[in-house]
Hints:
By secondary structure, the chain is an alpha+beta fold.
Amino acid sequence: MSSTVETASDISPFQVDIPDEALEDLRRRIAATRWPSKELVPDRSQGVQLATLQELAHYWATDYDWRKAEAKLNALPQFTTEIDGVNIHFIHVQ
């Protein structure tokens, strides 16, 4: 049995550049989340607890510094390529 793997043809530099409009849209969608009812048990046996998810959503919508994360990523050498028809984004750090 043999398999053939295509090699990458082009490797292109990449920078994260998230438009302000996309971040505002994300914040709006997080704020508009329709939450389920509270879990019926006091532990995580039914999955992640509602309060934990709401706390995380609040953090992402109001406190997370998206631009700081973008700058940290862009300080690293990033690239994109296509392998076997799949677009790959990677960071190359030795």
